[in-house]
Amino acid sequence: MNNSLKKNTHEPFLHITKRGEMPIAKAWIVRLAAIAASLLVSAAVIVLLTGYNPIQVFKAMFSGNFGSLSKVRTLFQNIAMLLCISLAVTPAFKMKFWNLGAEGQVLVGGLASAACMFYLKDSLPNIALILIMFVASILSGIVWGLIPAVFKAKWNANETLFTLMMNYVAIQLVSFFIMLWVPSGSSVMGLINADSRAGWLPNIFGQKYLLNILIVAVLTAVMYFYLKSSKQGYEIAVVGESENTAKYIGINVKKVIIRTMTISGGLCGLAGFLLVSGTNHTVTKELAGGMGFTAVMVSWLAKFNPLVMVLTSFLIVFLQRGAGEIATVCRLNESVSDILTGIIIFFIIGSEFFINYKINFKSKHKEEK
Amino acid sequence: MLSTVCAFINAAIIQSIPLLFGSVGEIFTEKSGNLNLGIPGIMYMGGISGIIGGYIYEKSAENPIPILMILIPLLSSLLGSAFLAFIYSFLTITLRANQNVTGLALTTFGIGIGNFFGGSLLSLFGETGSISLIKTGLCYKTPLPFYTKLGLFGETFLSFGFLVYLAIAIALISSFVINKTRVGLNLRAVGENPATADAAGISVTKYKYLATCIGGAIAGLGGLYFVMDYTSGAWTNNGFGDRGWLAVAIVIFAIWKPKSAILSSLLFGGLYIICVYIPGLSSSAKELIKMLPYLVTIFVLIIISVRRKKENMPPASLGLSYFREDR
Amino acid sequence: MSDIALQLKGITKRFGSVVANKNINLCAYTGEILSLLGENGSGKTTLMNMISGIYYPDEGEIFINGQEVVIKSPRDAFDYKIGMIHQHFKLVDVFSAAENIVLGLGEQGRYNIKNSSKKVSQIAEKYGFDIDPEKKIHEMSVSEKQTVEIIKVLYRGADILILDEPTAVLTPQETKKLFDVLRKMKEDGKTIIIITHKLHEVLALSDRVAVLRKGEYIGTVITSQTNEDELTEMMVGKKVDLNIKRSDPVNPQKRLEVKNLNCNNREGIKVLNDVSFEAYSGEILGIAGIAGSGQRELLEAIAGLQHIEQGDIIYNDPKTEKSENLKDKTPLQIRSLGVRLSFVPEDRLGMGLVGNMDIVDNMLLRSYRKGKSFFLQKKEPKTLAEKIIRQLEVVTPSANTPVRRLSGGNVQKVLVGREISSSPTVLMAAYPVRGLDINSSYTIYNLLNEQKEKGVAVIFVGEDLDVLIELCDRILVIGSGRITGIVDGRTAKKEEIGYLMTNSNGGKDNE
Question: For A12, which of C67, C72, C364 is closest by C-beta distance?
Fold first, then answer.
């Protein structure tokens, strides 16, 4: 940050200090400016790659998201799933527990649902089967989340690395079961119960995915109030801010870690259930499709506020789907959406610096004297 | 039997090289206190940058010279991965962004770049088909000239392209630099206790930047090895798979020691393909065996947490950003 | 006196809205020992951190040997041959002594830790230090670590040495040894600046004394021409009899009995050794001692935050007249027994309060469990917050301001206000006036006295002996984890307490 040292003559060119507090309005202006800048850079990247003019680019993005009813439906479905996983990781993050294992927790949740569908088939009434799947998924997610939590609480094992590794154990577990279930040795599992539709979440009001979306909407509100107004949410905030304070007022930190990861893992399991029962009706290694990681960013960008997460997950899904549309039209690879996601996150997390720190330039420093 | 064992060892070595590059690069980075979870993305970037460099050269030169067919992809790979590591450094060191979030975003970004250009490079140049740089691949695969004279031993241990030996050399050099030089001492101090390093007159910022960028470049070579040597110059999207995360796992398994990373990579590489060499395995059991590397890593993580031996712990400031005037 | 080695002109440093140093002018001559004297929080350390490159001044100039210099980093400071020994050691735990000493050095030639170790041993021998260069820091005692710090500076050939409260962690013998070393270095022509607030050390060691008060430079005097009274006056302002009111305890009853308490710290080292005492209702029991003698562990053991190896803590309930043993109980269990124990910890923002939460949410810390509802009740804490702001005159924009944005005194008022709001029967306060201005300090003294008059057993851990003597009814002196004496606050002499504080071996006899 400082330039090379030249003795006796120059003061540092830049000098960075911590800001006391930036007004909330101003902070949001900085964030919006960062989003605008990232959109400009994204547009520039696409223009360079496709030769489109920027207006065409944004038009294509828009039509990719809102072009037809089925596109809108998928858009909201994608937002709902990303939001659901983001909500799941948030309580853990607020406690400063880096749950990077959402991917795996979603997977085992989905796997549990798929297993119920596969083994029980239509032997039970559909509503009972769905309930069993629901419970099984949440329990599996909880188990997957609790393993690292227990080792963190008891021996302070690094949860970032632990949860990360759990993802790949889950992926292999899914592969194992697919191989077990698909006799041909093919690694692809087709729709489960395609004929009987047993274990499929029903369409409500004739709309596919609507149930998923409604469940996540309710979850968003519940999580908002849980974190903001409940005693447990308050304990999470205290543990996240200062473990010493938590101990001082008699909070059992280990208990809070375990309880919170139960919630986090359970909600990831729920997301797995929604993905298998309400969306894909099958299980693959790519069930979570990286959303477990994207959720980390969504939650972080929203500063752990569930309502803001609706916006950040919309932003990211919108961008990804828009970029996907452009890629299809131009016969380019759809991974362009990942590039854009990266760019936009770089800009927003970079902008936090300008909210938390103040840069004093040399000239200004002189004037103050 | 012996030949099967030798074939297995040979294959394990081949599998271990991308992991070795990746883990040594990440060890270097983590020694400075930066937990770079962007390593998987950086390795994709290292692969695709090499492909792009090689493609452009193969396409433009009428008679490509072997040495340039090696150097150009090598250089573009190093630059590409160092550039991504630089983005990470700028965000986490200068702008003090959260390391986990930045790293994950970088992985998304890097894999995106890899798959995008891997899938679209030809159409961007108005061609069709899939990328296959056979000539460049052959240059990278050139083995030591005398290995055939050494019989089975030569076949097993010496039949590789130069990147294999480079990987081992880099691991040994890294070990030497980290443990036996002044630079290494300073680097470890930065990762353990940046405030102390700063007070001792070490430029924390410089060390973090350099370690992260050099570490990124080393890790990127793993991607380059994969596309040029392992797949002989061909790119398939997502072909590199989750090897990047496996490399992150090895860092833990090797308890942050580059020398141990050599054997750990070999072990993980072996586990990655052992199922092919065990006769009569069902395809589902194979998937369980592939789970082993992650399970043993978790096991090691638990052991070091329970034992709490200071020397085996991760660098103390791992994952935290440093601001001198914090109080 | 010879040349000026170091000169500061108009140095100002702010942290946010707090001015830590205001227009400081100061100089140190070559070959002298200069004491930098000031109370806790007077800005001594901040000032020296700017010379050693940790902080960068907002305004002002620094001159070394008459030349204006810019010190942007510790590396620059080394280049000007300035070395600082920080109060909180800057050592890498997993490195050996020698590795720490050569850290960051741009020595010529190949790196060879064995040669460096030899050189370290030579320096140690020359000054009479006892050190094993290959020993890891995390295996060392505090005084060994300090030795490593000093050798580190000597190894670099520093001409200007700054020591930040070096004696705070040392035994009297170790202190004497250190002073001998410092005098030797002075004879070598080195300039030594020693930060302290202990007057007798200033008088014994230094050539001149510079005094800071509340971030401002007060003046410099020659040691041989001054005395304790003058220095105290410079340090605290006009010579004041502290004039803290003290009433006689009314109807004192045994509230808390600590019996043969033994505790280990996290590293497994014994920090409390057979501590026994009683605290009575309606009195203030002072605890005096050198920092880190076990005060923190003692209070935390009573509060249920520290594991007790051996011993008992008996609480006598004034209402039910039952006795409860608090040993091995968590803070929650202690509260559920009906023990109204309040604790103002030393680390206000790191333990007593949450810096990023507002005043209302900080009130909730103690009361959020109330009621059966799943949700928080914010009405009561809001009323309490407003009451504390009003009654204790807390300066804050609103009750919804994060407490980290308040000044030190106001933070402490919020914390103490909350702790006494639950009408405790035992109130423990660790260094409650540290870093506070005079007015805030008196507010706190008055609050403690009020509690005492209400019949609360108050335990006050302090560092300023004058305050302890004027405020407390009895003073318990602790040295290296043992009780070295219990004196009557009304008759005790400062020297007597000072002697007990440093005499940690006599504990057994005094009990």
Answer: C72
